[in-house]
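Tutorial, part two.
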Amino acid sequence: MKKEPKLDANGKRTFGMRDCLAYAAGDLGCNMSFALKSTMSIFWTQFMGMDLWYALLLIIVQVWDAINDPLIGSLVDSDKHKYKRNKFLTYIWAGSIGLIVGGACCFLPFPDAPVFAKAIIFIAGYVIWDAFYTVANVPYGSLLGLISNDVKDRASLSAWRSIGSIFGNMLPMVILPFIIYDSENNLIGERVFIAALIMGVLGFICFQFMIRNTEIRVEQEVTLSEEKPKFNVFRAFGNFIKNRAAVGATVAAMGMFIGMQGAATAVTVIFQSYFQNVKISGIVQLFAMIPIVCFTPLARKMVAKYGKKELATFGAICSIVASLALFIITPNNTGLDLIIYIISQLVFSLGMGIYSTVSWAMMGDAIDYNEWKTGNREEGTVYSLHSFFRKLAQGIGPSLVLIIMVALGYKGENEGNQVWEVAVRMRYLVAGTYLFSAIMQYIGLGLIYNLDKKTLAKMNEELGRSIEADSVPVGESNN
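Running the prediction step on this input gives:
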């Protein structure tokens, strides 16, 4: 006999491990596509031979991001259609279909094509990938606040999302270097394209698991009254700027992605030409994830004891210290140099990992903060604007770092054989990028984000009274 699930007072399945695994699978699906972005710079500079052209094109496609994220976020918020399950899950399903091939569109291997043709291939591929990624990712991020309104449950969901992100990064990080690089540390572009297709299929499977196992417990009643003011994206943007919690979390996220994405190309060059073994790069980066894996199971209890803002700020301080240690370079690349590099990466990863495990819960709280201060939740818009600025960091960061790399002597046509002086400069550039990233995280979390443990408790108490007074049981609706 099939075991019936336990139900809460509202007739919903009680929150548990099934919810955590499902939410983790969602970010695993996102990262099956997104994690390949760290390979994009190497693919387009070393295999496709674009160098500064790629930096320029990457900035141009951010214009699409400027339209894409808020547009889709406002579309989700203004969509009042009653879906059979939930509109967020419906949008995620649609995005997951496109992501099967979306990621591969960014790695079409035509190195002998004219420059203008390569530019068209890149822009078209990126636009296709980014559109489907946003359709899936913006509603996915907004789901956290609807799965549960309990602060501990949200901390668990955020931590498990980080686990999904970790495993989503492990595949391209550890396995791909052994597949896509030859014995001379040079990239084999055709293999990247095939890998992207395979990862798109794996991502689709992860999304379907998440959709089938997600329970929505915080329903927002859909009102179609003519007296209700129409959705205004400009007012929503103004509310976002006034939302200190959202702005602080966004500044921190931008800093995190500048460190992760901005330095990615330089890190690859370090292992190609400084340590002269690019295939171990994934293993070293995987080793650096150990602190995140160890901290994640403790996140729920640590949040309950210290608070999300307090923990994340401490993590930023750890990252600042580790970034300073990365400036230590021993003469002539001794074995000690690699040890110092790995230890610094471990501490930096610990700091970033503490923040990443609670970052999505902090954004869920920021959405509640928007409702607390303005009376409007606007999940899709708040999250999409957060996602836009985060993507801006993912685009502008790598572009600026690549420009600096070229100024410091990096040449894509040299592939894995940069001259020694350039390799050393890349070491310092990575250290500087990480330090800038950690400082941005500290500013966002320690100085701007204003939902400390005491304030968060007050907000949840007041919103809880409001929800209890205004809540109306929502029955099953038709698609």
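Confidence is low (pLDDT under 50) at residues 221-229, 465-479. In part three we will examine how such features are distributed along the chain.
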